[in-house]
UniProtKB/TrEMBL annotation:
NCBIfam families, per database record: maleylpyruvate isomerase family mycothiol-dependent enzyme (TIGR03083)
InterPro entries recorded: DinB/YfiT-like, Maleyloyr_isom, MDMPI_metal-binding, SCP2_sterol-bd_dom_sf
Name of the protein in question: Maleylpyruvate isomerase
Organism: Paractinoplanes toevensis
MF-aspect GO terms: isomerase activity; metal ion binding
Length: 244
């Protein structure tokens, strides 16, 4: 399974209002639930886009991730140190829940999201500034982190939802995070609609990658093949680097 970088790379993005992002999480979760609700129950055992994970693994992870972030927000609000997961808990919980019936999985996602939304709504302004050791970042990054989990893992279900369904705002934020969290090879990105180029790595004459923002973000995150991207000078797309 692909892992995400430390959210230290996202702190520069946190001019975003966490309360606005909580609303985005509501919408994204509703969308994922609608996708799952239309499925044949046997889809639970089908492979997802994540190596070694079925659709059931992804759905269970989405629910348990909401609970992890609920614990972090609650700890920030109450002043009690909190971790997202106890040692070994993340993998054990995912394996334990992956084979549950689809109806149970959907209910779990709804209920865990409600707990997360309640925890977010209960946050006073000062609690958003509390540093979270688990994320190595302030609590204000949690709504973005949760939105990213829901949107990207919705794609990982390998069903009807693709990076083309991401909002422009989400794709731009994800791309900026990717640029700060990837380690080589060097390249310059010129997404359509963005005024300034984005640079990864340091090289004298790096290739320039152009194309839709959503396509570049999908390619760098391992959720797209980059077939509609261009490379200058002409050549093959470089292999995206790994997370730092």
């Amino acid at each position: 399974m692909l892992s995400w970088p430390s959210l230290r790379s996202v702190q520069s993005l946190m001019t975003m209002d966490p309360l606005v992002l909580l609303t985005d999480v509501d919408r994204a979760t509703d969308s994922l639930v609608r996708t799952a609700s239309d499925l044949d129950p046997t889809v639970i055992s089908q492979p997802s886009l994540l190596p070694g994970w079925t659709v059931g693994h992804v759905l269970t992870h989405v629910a348990r991730n909401a609970d992890a972030y609920t614990r972090l927000l609650t700890g920030a609000r109450t002043g009690s140190p909190a971790e997202g997961y106890a040692p070994g808990q993340r993998g054990a919980d995912i394996e334990a829940g992956a084979t549950r019936p689809l109806r149970e999985q959907i209910a779990d996602i709804r209920e865990s999201h409600e707990r997360f939304a309640d925890a977010g709504a209960a946050m006073p302004a000062e609690a958003w500034t509390v540093h979270l050791d688990f994320l190595k970042a302030p609590a204000a990054v949690v709504p973005w982190a949760r939105l990213r989990e829901v949107e990207v893992h919705h794609v990982d279900l390998a069903l009807s939802y693709t990076p083309a369904d991401w909002s422009d705002a989400f794709a731009q934020r994800l791309l900026k995070e990717l640029v700060t969290g990837l380690d080589g090879p060097a390249m310059v990105l010129r997404p359509f609609g963005l005024e300034h180029a984005l640079t990864i790595g340091d090289a004298a004459d790096p290739p320039v990658i152009g194309g839709p923002t959503k396509s570049i973000a999908a390619w760098l995150s391992g959720r797209g093949d980059g077939a509609d991207l261009t490379v200058s000078p002409d050549g093959q797309l470089p292999a995206p680097g790994r997370w730092k």
